[in-house]
Task: inverse folding
């Protein structure tokens, strides 16, 4: 009997031992073992953030998310002022009022012929003038688009469509003034003239509005392209364009630039030839000069103004200003907030959105203290100031930068008066001759125009 009891107990212990072994654990069924440390963790506890399993099974949110879509590049925008030129392949004075754009993007190749382009408009037409730089003129190819030529793209309603609408047109003119138009039904809209030059050729064109003409303030789709066969082999080697680099402008207007139709162009005056002494006095020679006034407002609506005269010669432009200012002050440490006059020069009349090497801002206060932007042009300025009972006189000579302009040339020019009205160190008014944007210190596109005339 005792033996049977002992056998039963041994069998029971054996069964318990075998069950424990089959569980494969230390007896705690709610815990698992960390592979690296052996420390027990609850089964539903996530693995450490730096474990291999965590990185594999639980990717971080950044890896799942899509990268942000790149912002769509905005089309270039420029303005066409009102004006009606003669279409003769010559750069008449009226073109001096127009903004200039350049074909400095590439729809084919990465170098080659480019153009400076100007636009005007009136109720009947858009006008385009292009100065094309091309060292070898060729039309060897029978394909007109592979000949040395220019193309104008018009999307009159600015529909930006993937196919041409009835108002859309492509106008191509080569250096021999041979034209092709797409669609051909618009061929009658184009009148053009071309003239070969030492540097390439000039193309001038008028394109009639199609259907209902746009009006003042409207924006149309516009682009300009230069085709170039570089080596006279009948193959187009480069395509320079103002805005649309897709190469699809001939059938798709969605990528072309924008042209705003604005009103009258910048003010124009003429400087006659003459050389005054720079002494702050109104010498007799100034009686020959035309007079302009700073009667537009950049800031405020009243305050100090000036009557301004200009002369020029082979070395310099000369400026004389009679400034009316009842209280002279330079309390502000900011030179632009002191009572002062500013002269803006765009020697090549580039009308650019940033200063080029020939552009300068010359500021002179009533104590003849000067500041020049950029500072590298400071040596160009010589000035003299004389206080008067009504304000002060500023007289200045500014040396031409690089190649001097000649008689008949047009330069960008403006004159501004800064005024602290009440001696509190704050500029209260800014009067100017032409450009009311307040950006003349860095952007020459809205300056007035100065024609360099002969003797008087």
Result:
């Amino acid at each position: 009997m005792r033996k049977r009891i002992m056998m039963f107990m041994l069998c029971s212990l054996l069964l318990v031992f075998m069950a424990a072994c089959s569980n494969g654990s230390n007896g705690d069924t709610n815990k698992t073992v960390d592979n690296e440390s052996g420390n027990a963790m609850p089964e539903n506890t996530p693995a450490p953030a730096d474990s291999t399993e965590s990185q594999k099974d639980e990717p971080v949110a950044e890896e799942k998310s899509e990268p942000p879509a790149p912002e769509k590049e905005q089309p270039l925008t420029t303005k066409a002022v009102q004006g009606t030129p003669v279409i003769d392949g010559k750069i008449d004075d009226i073109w001096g009022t127009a903004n200039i754009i350049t074909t400095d993007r590439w729809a084919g190749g990465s170098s080659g012929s480019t153009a400076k382009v100007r636009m005007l408009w009136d109720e009947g037409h858009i006008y385009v003038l292009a100065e094309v730089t091309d060292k070898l003129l060729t039309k060897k190819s029978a394909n007109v688009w592979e000949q040395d030529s220019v193309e104008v793209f018009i999307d009159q309603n600015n529909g930006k469509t993937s196919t041409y609408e009835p108002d859309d047109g492509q106008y191509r003119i080569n250096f021999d003034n041979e034209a092709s138009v797409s669609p051909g039904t618009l061929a009658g809209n184009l009148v053009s003239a071309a003239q070969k030059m030492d540097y390439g050729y000039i193309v001038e064109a008028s394109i009639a509005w199609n259907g209902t003409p746009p009006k003042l303030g409207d924006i149309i789709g516009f682009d300009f392209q230069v085709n170039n066969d570089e080596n006279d082999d009948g193959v187009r080697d480069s395509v320079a364009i103002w805005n649309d680099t897709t190469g699809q402008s001939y059938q798709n207007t969605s990528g072309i630039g924008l042209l705003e139709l604005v009103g009258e162009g910048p003010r124009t005056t003429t400087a006659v030839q003459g050389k005054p002494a720079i002494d702050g006095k109104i010498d007799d020679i100034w009686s020959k000069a035309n007079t302009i006034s700073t009667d537009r407002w950049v800031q405020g609506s009243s305050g100090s103004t000036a009557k301004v005269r200009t002369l020029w010669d082979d070395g310099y432009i000369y400026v004389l200003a009679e400034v009316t200012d009842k209280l002279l002050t330079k309390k502000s440490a900011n030179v632009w907030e002191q009572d002062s006059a500013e002269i803006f020069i765009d020697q090549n009349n580039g009308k650019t959105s940033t200063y080029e090497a020939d552009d300068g801002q010359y500021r002179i206060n009533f104590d003849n203290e000067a500041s020049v932007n950029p500072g590298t042009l400071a040596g160009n300025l010589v000035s003299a100031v004389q206080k008067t009972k009504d304000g002060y006189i500023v007289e200045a000579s500014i040396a031409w930068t690089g190649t001097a302009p000649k008689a008949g040339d047009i330069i960008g020019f403006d004159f501004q008066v800064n005024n602290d009205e009440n001696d509190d160190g704050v500029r209260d008014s800014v009067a100017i001759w032409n450009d009311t944007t307040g950006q003349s210190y860095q952007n020459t596109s809205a300056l007035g125009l100065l024609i360099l005339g002969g003797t008087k």
User: Anything to note?
Assistant: The longest helix spans residues 2-23. The CA atoms of residues 212 and 448 lie 32 Å apart.
